[in-house]
Amino acid sequence: MSMIEFKDVEKYYGDFHALHDINLEVEAGETVVLLGPSGSGKSTLIRTINGLESIEGGQLIVNNQDLANPKTDLNRLRKDVGMVFQHFNLYDNKTILENIMIAPRLVLKRDEAENKETAMGLLERVGLTDQANKYPSQLSGGQKQRVAIARSLAMKPKALLFDEPTSALDPEMVNGVLKIMREIAQDSSMTMLVVTHEMGFAKQVADRVIFMADGKILEDAPTAKFFEHPEEERARQFLSQIVH
Amino acid sequence: MQDFLQAYSWVNMRFLLNGLWITIVVSVVSIAFSFVIGSILGTIRYMKIKYVSEIVGFIIDLIRNLPLLLIIFFTYFALPKVGIHFNVMISTIVAMTIFESAMLAEIVRSGIKAVPTGQLEGARANGLSFYQALWYILLPQAYKKMIPPIVSQFVSLIKDTSLATIIMLPEVTFRAQTIYAQKPAQIIPMFLMLAILYFILNFTISRVGTYIDRRMAS
């Protein structure tokens, strides 16, 4: 069963054609990495999946909900589809523990004791138990991103969207975040879509690679095939520039 | 010299301090109402609800560009012509509340706008509704940043209550005038006393504001 399905999706910012005839299907449990030069529409594409960006044409079905329909309840959709941002977007006015607990409390009405237990469990999983009562401003970038991942996981989502999760991090912080993402990808029920420039991560974890340029999907191939025999010239150029 | 000291007689001082009390009561009541109304209007304007936000925005801009004195005249002299009668004190409070709500609405709106967009995006992506994001994430951060402008707005409000002298509200400035109207030699000592009283009141409030701001920042 497909978790995410784009059919002829179009997206404009004014006159700018941001997404061009997007057709893409992601099965439940799949891990898909989106690659492409900056400005190619990867972030825009991933942001349409949870309705942070609207679409102007075509059809987009996520978790059986139709995003082209303005009546679709986005809050309901977002319970099942989490997102991790490049700049973390943790709640600056809440402690780390509260950052993780607030959405399950308000949205899922999870019991307070259970909520705290889940949150502490997740903090343990991302190795930040001792930071529970600090505020985001007291954490490093890598720590913030790990909290952001824990915050998404606390909702027990079916799918997670990662929008350049390591691009704003200092190099020594990247591995800690990738390690957690790798662990999440091993969970066979979790659907993952990752926009990244981390080729090592893509090779290791992705089931499939989507290559985008100029708002179009140019190539959609199994990971090994994409890295060994990319069909598109643009993809070959991209790989030769980025893989050292 | 004797006139100077006589100006600060016990009777005069008690008369002035009772006036200061009226200044404080009018200010506190106006501050309380305008804080609530201003917050609501500012939030509505921020939310960009079709038509509603535009109408609210127009009213805010209109009031902000009128002199407070005109609004005081309006509530005291014009409203009775359409059958609404307020006493001097209520008239002043209503006028101050109308004016200060508009001023505060703008502070609140720009305060919410100053919260980084990632905060709202993070909250929405996390499953919170717009109103939950507003209440739990945006407003707390916005108010924290708004403490200094809100406090200075309240200090202006207190100073502006002296305008109600013109409709004969017996607040502190009016009472000082009453005293020196009988003894013109006491004009200077009365002005001096007024300056001291306003300064103590407003300086204390600014200091408390700075203290709260520091506490919140840490």
TrEMBL record, chain B:
Q: Which residues cross the membrane?
A: 20-43, 55-78, 84-105, 187-205
Q: Which residues form a coiled coil?
A: none
Subcellular localization, per the record?
Answer: Cell membrane
One GO molecular-function entry: transmembrane transporter activity
| Stated family | Belongs to the binding-protein-dependent transport system permease family.
A GO BP entry is: amino acid transport
Keyword Transmembrane helix assigned: yes
Where do the ABC transmembrane type-1 domain residues begin and end? 20-209
Transport among keywords: yes
Protein name per Swiss-Prot or TrEMBL: Amino acid ABC transporter permease
UniProt keywords, alphabetically: Cell membrane, Membrane, Transmembrane, Transmembrane helix, Transport
Q: Which GO terms describe its cellular component?
A: ATP-binding cassette (ABC) transporter complex
Bilayer topology? Multi-pass membrane protein
Name the source's superkingdom: Bacteria
